[in-house]
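Quick note —
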Amino acid sequence: MHHPSFKVRGKTFVMVSDHDRPAYWIKAPPGGQRELVGTDPERFFVPPYLGPRGWVGVWLDRPVDWDEVAELVTDGYRLAAPKRLVRLLDGDPPR
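Predicted structure written out below.
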């Protein structure tokens, strides 16, 4: 089964899933998954396959805080992107 995904330089940082319920799976920083799932398990979950690598799932069939999702996606991008692209994201001039 193919799941749409977002990649930077060949590295995935977000996947769209619709196994039983629509969700995003997002690459999370160390400890991020535990914090999100631990504080709000109604909105966040440990996704299969990528959960052991620290990814976090966000259910999309409940009220969604899209600003929070944008922050999570940006964090995932930062984890997957080369340092040069992260510097550009931060507004630093190219070297």
